[in-house]
Amino acid sequence: MSYGFLGRIIRVDLTSGSITIEKPGETFYRKYLGGKGLVAYYLLKELPGGVDPLGPDNKLVFATGVLTGVPAPALPRFVVGAKSPLTGGFGQSEAGGFWGPELKKAGYDAIIVEGCAEKPVYLYIKDDDIQIRDAQHLWGLETGQAQEAIRWELGDDKVRLAIIGTGGENLVRYACIINELKHANGRNGLGAVMGSKKLKAIVVRGSGNIPVAEPEKIPGIRKDIIAELKAYPLTQSLYELGTAGAVISLNAGGILPTRNFNYGELETAERISGEAMAETILKRREGCYACSIRCKRAVEVSSGEITVDPKYGGPEYETIASFGSLCQIDDLVLLAKAHELCNKYSIDTISTGCSIAFAMECYEKGLLTREDCDGLEVKFGNKDVILPLIDMIAQRRGIGDILAEGTHRAAKIIGRGAEDFALTVKRQELPMHDPRGKVAVGIGYALSETGADHMTAAHDPLFANKGIVLDTIFPLGITKPVGERDLTWEKIRAFMYLKIWWSFSDMAGICHFGPVPRGGISINNIIRLLKAVTGWDTSLWELMKAGERSINMARLFNLREGFTREDDILPKRLFTPLKKGRLKGVAIPEDEFRAIISLYYAMMGWDEEGVPGKGKLLELQLAEFLPMREEDDPDGSLLDDAELN
Amino acid sequence: MSYGFLGRIIRVDLTSGSITIEKPGETFYRKYLGGKGLVAYYLLKELPGGVDPLGPDNKLVFATGVLTGVPAPALPRFVVGAKSPLTGGFGQSEAGGFWGPELKKAGYDAIIVEGCAEKPVYLYIKDDDIQIRDAQHLWGLETGQAQEAIRWELGDDKVRLAIIGTGGENLVRYACIINELKHANGRNGLGAVMGSKKLKAIVVRGSGNIPVAEPEKIPGIRKDIIAELKAYPLTQSLYELGTAGAVISLNAGGILPTRNFNYGELETAERISGEAMAETILKRREGCYACSIRCKRAVEVSSGEITVDPKYGGPEYETIASFGSLCQIDDLVLLAKAHELCNKYSIDTISTGCSIAFAMECYEKGLLTREDCDGLEVKFGNKDVILPLIDMIAQRRGIGDILAEGTHRAAKIIGRGAEDFALTVKRQELPMHDPRGKVAVGIGYALSETGADHMTAAHDPLFANKGIVLDTIFPLGITKPVGERDLTWEKIRAFMYLKIWWSFSDMAGICHFGPVPRGGISINNIIRLLKAVTGWDTSLWELMKAGERSINMARLFNLREGFTREDDILPKRLFTPLKKGRLKGVAIPEDEFRAIISLYYAMMGWDEEGVPGKGKLLELQLAEFLPMREEDDPDGSLLDDAELN
What we know:
- Two copies of one chain form a homodimer.
- Chain A is of the alpha+beta class.
- Chain A is built from 24 helices and 16 strands.
- The longest helix of chain A has 21 residues, at 540-560.
C-alpha cells in the first residue's frame, strides 16, 4: 500500500524515444521522499562525473514531493534538477503553481529525461498516455505563444505546461523553466538543459487522485494550518503586498542590494515597493494550487509606452530588486515589463538583473565601452538599457551573448578585474538579500549546493529578529534567538537545523512561505499532515535525517565535480564595507566567516575540506555512494568497510 | 511556569552540614531533562579529574527525570550517579520503585550529596523540612532492619528509603543502593560511595503533586499506553514470569551465561526458570509506582533449611543467571536466598555472582586453593559455597575481601593469569547476556559509559528477532530488521539510535520495560506524554539530541579519567568460541568488532580515539565543556572558537 506518492516514475530517453515506467518501492520513497531527494539520488547515481551539462549525457529530473498536491496550503511545489550549466555542480530549482499536483494526478511522482532529441519536441502526459510530440513549429516562440499553441493543438485548455522560451532554447546559462507563464524553476539554468535536449515543454493532464492514507484527517489539519497562517503577520503581508512587501523593510534595514551590492539603500525605494505596486499596477492577487496564502501578483499596464500583460503574473521582490535597486532603477512599470520579458523568454530574473548590474559596473569602471554594448549607455540608473539588454541576453545578441554566460564567465571574457564585479557563489549570482545585514543568509549562500540561493536555509531576521524566536520552531530545539549579525556556534547550529528542515521541505514539496520560520505553519502540523498523508509512523527525527541525507548527496555530487571548500565562500565585496545605507561601513569579517563554515562542516560530520565522513554517510544509509572518489579512500579501507553493507 | 519538574535541587554538604536549595531555570531542564542528564552535568562540571571515588571530594547525585512520578506505567525511575569506585569512570545506575516519585512529591528533582559525614547519618526530607540525622545506631544493620528502625523513630510507616546495608558500609566496590528493600540502583558501586560518605539512607516523604501542564490529557494517554502494553507479548511474559521468563529462551538460544561464560547452556535450566518460580516459591507479583506491567516478584520460603523473606522481593533474571547458570547452580531456593542476602547487604547481584563464578574458575584452575578460600571448596556447581561467599564479600572477610574489590582488581591481586577469568568491560562485570549470540549487546557493553551494562542500549533480538522489526520504533527511522549476529553498518546505526533513545529514557525517568523495543509503549505515546506533562513544544528530534548530549557528557567524563578506545572492548573470552550449547563454536570476530566500534565513533561525530569532536559538542550546546583536556587543543584553537559562545 502506498500513500502520498504514486510509486511510478517516467523515464524518457529523447535520443531513442523510449519511454519506460519505473516503480521504486515504499522503502525508496521513505528514504528519499521525493523532490530534492529523488533529484539528488538520480543525479548522484546515474550521472558520470564531468558530464557536459548541455550535452546529451546530462539528465533532467522533474520530481514532486511526498506532500505535493495534497489539498492544503503551501504544498504545490516540485523540483527540477540536473547538472547545472551555470554552476557546473548540483543543479536544482523548485517551483510552485499547478504543474506538480497535475503530474501526480496523472499518476507519476517524477520524470527523468535523458538524451537529446534530434528535432524539437515536447512531452505530453495524459494519465497512461505518454507521447513525445513534435515541437518544431513551436521552437522560437515565447512561452505564452507556445503554451497557447500547444493547448490549441491538444484541444485541451487545462493541460499544465512546464515550458521554455527562447532563453532556454538559446542556452542562456541561467535560463529557467516556467509553468502557467508565471511560476518559475528559476535558478541554475535548468531551462538551458531543457533547451539543450530540444525539449520545449512537458505538458501534463491527470484525472486521478493522490492517494492519502487517512483522508478523514486532512480537513482538520488543513483547517488548523489555515488558522496558523492567518495568525501570522508575514503571511498577511505576503497576501497584501506579495514578496515585494520586503522592499521597504530591507531598505530601512540598509540591506536592499543597490548598485551591484555597493550600497544597501535606494533613496526612492518606496517607488518600487509592494505598497506602490498595490496602489498602481496590481490587477489581482493570485496563488498556487490549494494555497490560502496567495502571495502571487498579476499586474497590468494597458496604456502608455510600456504595456504589461497580466497573464505573466507580476514581479516578485527578487525581480524588483535585481532590475531595480541593484541597477538603481526606480520605475515600477519598467520592472514589471522586465519581469514579463523574462517569463516570456524563460530566463531567471535574479541572474538576468545581476548580469545587467554587473555590466553597468564594468561600464562605469571603463571595462566595457558603449561600442562593446552595441551603442547602449549601460550605466547605473539608465532605465533605457534594461529591456534591450534582456532581449539581447535571451537572443544572445551582442553583449547579451557574453552576459548570457553568467557574470562569472562574462568577467573572465571581459577580464581586467571584472571578476570583482561578478558577485556569485559557485558561479551563480547572489539573490537580493545582503548578507552584511543578516549573516545567516550569507552562510546559506556559501553553503548552498546550488550556488548562491536564498531558499536553502532560513533568513535569520525571520526567526530571530529583535531577539524574538518563533515558538513554532521549538520542536527543532531552537528556543533561543540568535542575533542577525552574530557569527557564533549558536548561530551555525540554528542555521544547520533550519537548513536541514528546508532541505526536507524541498523533498516533501513544501513551499518555504508555508511553514516556519518564514510562514506560519508549525513544524508540528507539517508532521501531522505528513503522517496522515503517508500513513507512516514517522517523526521529525526521521524526516530531519532525510533532510540531512539530501544535503549530503548534493554535497557528494559537487565534490565529484571538483568543488572544494574554496567554493563555499562569498564574493569579496561582502567582506568589504557597505558604502551607503543604515549599515554603511559594515562588512562581514572574513576570518570569522571562514571559521563558521569550518564549524558547519564539523557539525555536519564532514572533514575539514567539507567532505562528508564515512560515519555520517553510513548513518544516513548512503552506503551505495561510498566512497565517491578514489582520493577519499587512498588505502582502500572504506571499500572494505562498505562490504559490511 | 514549570511542569514535569519542580525546579528545585537540594545540595547537601555532609562535611559542613549545610543544606541549600538551588533553582535552575526551565532552559536548564529542557537541555538536561533530569536523570542521567543532571547526573552527567553535575559530575562533569563539578568533579575535578582524578578524584578518589571513595573520598569526600566525590559527589553523589540522586536525580529524577522529567517524567518520573507521572501517573502512568513505566515512569517510576530515578538515577544515582557519582564517579564509580568500581570502574573509576562515569558512574550511574537507575532504579524503579517508589522513591523517585516520592522525592518529586516532596518538591525536589534531585539531590547532590557532597563531602563526608564524621559519623553515620541519614538524610530526612519531608517537603520543606530537610534534616541530617544521626545514624550511628543504624550502622551495621541490614537494610530491612535499618528501614524498620528509621520508620519507627520517625513515626511514619510511609517514608520511602534509599538505603545501604553492610556491603555499602564496608565499601564493597559493587555495593548498591536499595529502595523498598527490593528495588536496586544496582551497578557501579554507588552504595559504596554512600558508605564512604557515612550516609546510611535518604528518607523521603512528600505531600505535594507533580505539576503537569495539560492534566486533562494524561488519562487518555495513560489508557492508550496501557492498551499498548497489554497487546505486547513480552509485557505479558514480564507479568507472568518476571524477568526470569528469559531463562528458558536464552538457554534454548545457547546464550545463557554458564560456567563463567565458558558455556551458553545449563542442562537443568528449567529448574531455575521463571516458570519454576511461578510454580514453587512465588508469593505475589509486584510492581513499581503507577505501573501496570508488574514485572517484580516476591518469593517466600518459610520452611526447610533455607527460608526466604518476601519483603525483599524476589530474584530477577540477572540474579538467577549470575548465581545460577554462571556458577552451574540449579537450586532456585538457594538463588532466592542469595537474592535476599544481596538486598540485605546492598550488594549488586550481577557483580557478586560474577565474582563468585570468577573465584570458581580460579579455584578449578588452581589459582586459588581451599586454604585461600577459608576452607570452602569453591568449585562450579558447589552450592554450599554461595551463601557463605556472599556473607564474606559483604563483610569483607577472607577471600571475600578480595572478591569485594570486583573481579578486575581481584585478578590483579591473585595474579598468574587470573585476568583471563575476570570478565569485565571497564572493570565492571558482564551482565547475563552472552554477546556471542546477540552481538548488539556486546556493542552495548563495550560502549557503555558505565562499563558492561545491559541497560544502555536495546538488545537486538528484541527488535529484530527472526527478521521482524517492531513498528513501534519506526519513528526512529529503523524500519528494517538487522540480524542478531550481524556486524554491519546497519546494525551499528540501529544500535546508535536505540542507545540515544535509551539515554534519553534515562534522562526522562522511563523504565526500559515500558517503551519499545523492550516493552510495548510506542515512541509516539512517550512523546505525546512528555509534551502533555511539560507543555513543551518538543519533538523526537529535540529529545534524541538530548539523549546524544548525555552520552557525550558521560564520554567526556570518562576521557577526563583517562579512559581510551582500548577500554571500549569486550573481554577476550567473548572473542573465543562458546564451548557448549546451541552456539557451540561461535565467537565474535574481534577485528570486525573493533571496526564496528570505530564506525560508531564516526557516526557519533567522534574522532578515531573516541573523543567527541568540537562540531558535535557545540551542536549539542556543550560549549562550556569544550575543551576537556589540554591535549585535545594543542594549538589553542578550540579555546578561541569557544569564545564565539
